[in-house]
């Protein structure tokens, strides 16, 4: 198939590259010239394990090309994927300006029948609106259809997830379009679930909101465990043995971040509001997460009797989770700001996300080149992201030299034995 993918952000780039890898001819389009120039050299603008190798292989085989020229990009294409951003508006709703603009451009350029697939996470009803825009701007002899094909990729394992996902959801009100997209995806060998457009749009939001709910739920259970002397890890294991509950996404910690959960939960609350429905549980899920991101700061303040003036903290991990350089909605944003505002000095290090962190975090942060420097001469160490290289910190010579180390572990990465020589705080244990 000849496929165009518009938007080379995280979703578009992974989708385009993987579709090329299973044998399709893919042109990725983006207005950002610098980014496209980089991609043509097989350089990925994001950190995603395995992506650069895949880029190189498919660019070299001729299956994958990049352009900033819409007309050239849409020429002779059977299918166009829309994978542009839907940033959050101030009121929590999704901003659809980019999606609409691209739909119009596709319609104005297409010279042959085309199926438009939305990968961007869009509110229920958007695909029908996209169809209207396409019909309004297309040429008379061209037939257009829309398909909702939400992505469920996790950052840091997006390539793996594409080839080993739990399901591919195809939402279409047109059988031919649904069958074509199923055929395109067949080589991935992942189960396909076909439904109508509105249900597919809803599946994406409901899935992410449910996972966020699971996290906020276990975080509240953790907060209770601390008060009743239970261990949330054991509780989660015991709960997860029940197949109906499942053992995944029950890790307590300092809350969820990233590009999806915070945005999608708020967007679903907004979608509900627009149809006069108050999504009560989800409002609480969001509130609990805000509270949880501050949890470690409260523990630090308690330990130092409320006075952080003149104290120095070594913060390990800034990305919202390991194996990514993504800083969006990371707990580190809240934690470092609170510490600084309370008069503390903050030293910080992340193995991959330093460049992005410098753009997002407070200028007062003292960035370090490695974990050893970060934990030297500090009053306490805070672990905010569970990178592998922090998991054996207690074996590190620099750590062993610290007299009476104090560690606040926001991701529960150590067990009781490992922390016997430190003053140690974690979540729900
Ligand atoms: C998520 C979804 O998993 C994916 O299906 C969707 O398409 C996009 O959003 P991602 O944001 O990449 O993917 O990260 P994920 O690994 O799901 O973690 C999200 C956040 O939840 C992270 O901040 C993580 O630390 C937190 N989390 C996850 C927990 O706090 N506890 C858990 O048990 C699991």
Automatic annotation (TrEMBL):
Its EC number is 1.1.1.22. It catalyses: UDP-alpha-D-glucose + 2 NAD(+) + H2O = UDP-alpha-D-glucuronate + 2 NADH + 3 H(+). Residues 314-416 form the UDP-glucose/GDP-mannose dehydrogenase C-terminal domain. Substrate binds at residues 152-155, 204, 249-253, 257, 321. The active site is at residue 260. InterPro entries: 6-PGluconate_DH-like_C_sf (IPR008927), NAD(P)-bd_dom_sf (IPR036291), UDP-Glc/GDP-Man (IPR017476), UDP-Glc/GDP-Man_DH_C (IPR014027), UDP-Glc/GDP-Man_DH_C_sf (IPR036220), UDP-Glc/GDP-Man_DH_dimer (IPR014026), UDP-Glc/GDP-Man_DH_N (IPR001732), UDPglc_DH_bac (IPR028357). SMART domains: UDPG_MGDP_dh_C. It comes from the Bacteria. It is an enzyme of class 1 (oxidoreductase). This is UDP-glucose 6-dehydrogenase. The gene is ywqF.
């Amino acid at each position: 198939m000849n496929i165009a993918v518009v938007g080379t952000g995280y979703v578009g780039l992974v989708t385009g590259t993987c579709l090329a890898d299973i044998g399709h001819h893919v042109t990725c389009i983006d207005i950002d010239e610098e980014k496209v120039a980089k991609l043509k050299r097989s350089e990925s603008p994001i950190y995603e394990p395995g992506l650069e190798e895949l880029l190189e292989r498919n660019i070299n085989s001729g299956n994958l090309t990049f352009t900033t020229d819409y007309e050239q990009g849409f020429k002779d294409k059977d299918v166009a994927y829309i994978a542009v951003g839907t940033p959050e508006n101030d009121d929590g709703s999704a901003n659809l300006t980019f999606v609409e603009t691209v739909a119009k451009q596709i319609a104005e350029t297409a010279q042959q029948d085309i199926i438009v697939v939305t990968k961007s996470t869009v509110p229920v009803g958007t695909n029908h609106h996209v169809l209207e825009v396409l019909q309004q701007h297309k040429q008379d002899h061209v037939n257009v259809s829309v398909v909702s094909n939400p992505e469920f990729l996790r950052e840091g394992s997006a390539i793996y997830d594409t080839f080993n996902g739990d399901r591919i959801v195809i939402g279409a009100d047109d059988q031919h379009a649904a069958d074509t997209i199923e055929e395109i995806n067949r080589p991935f060998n992942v189960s396909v679930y076909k439904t109508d457009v509105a249900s597919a749009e809803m599946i994406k939001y409901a899935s992410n909101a449910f996972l966020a709910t699971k996290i906020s739920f276990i975080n509240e259970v953790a907060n209770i465990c601390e008060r009743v002397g239970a261990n949330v890890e054991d509780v989660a294991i015991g709960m997860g043995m029940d197949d109906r509950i499942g053992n995944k996404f029950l890790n307590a910690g300092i809350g969820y971040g990233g590009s999806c959960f915070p945005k999608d939960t708020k967007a679903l609350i907004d979608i509900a509001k627009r149809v006069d429905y108050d999504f009560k549980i989800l409002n609480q899920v969001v509130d609990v997460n805000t509270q949880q991101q501050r949890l470690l700061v409260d523990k630090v303040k308690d330990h130092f009797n409320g006075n952080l003036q003149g104290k120095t903290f070594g913060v390990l991990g800034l990305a919202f989770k390991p194996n990514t350089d993504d800083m969006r909605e990371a707990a580190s944003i809240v934690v470092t700001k609170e510490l600084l505002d309370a008069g503390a000095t903050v030293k910080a290090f992340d193995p991959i996300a330093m460049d992005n962190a410098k753009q997002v975090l407070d200028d007062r942060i003292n960035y370090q080149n490695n974990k050893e420097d970060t934990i030297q001469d500090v009053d306490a160490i805070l672990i905010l992201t569970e990178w592998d290289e922090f998991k054996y910190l207690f074996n590190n010579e620099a750590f062993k030299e610290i007299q009476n180390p104090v560690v606040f572990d926001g991701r529960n990465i150590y067990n009781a034995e490992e922390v016997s020589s430190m003053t140690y705080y974690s979540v729900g244990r």
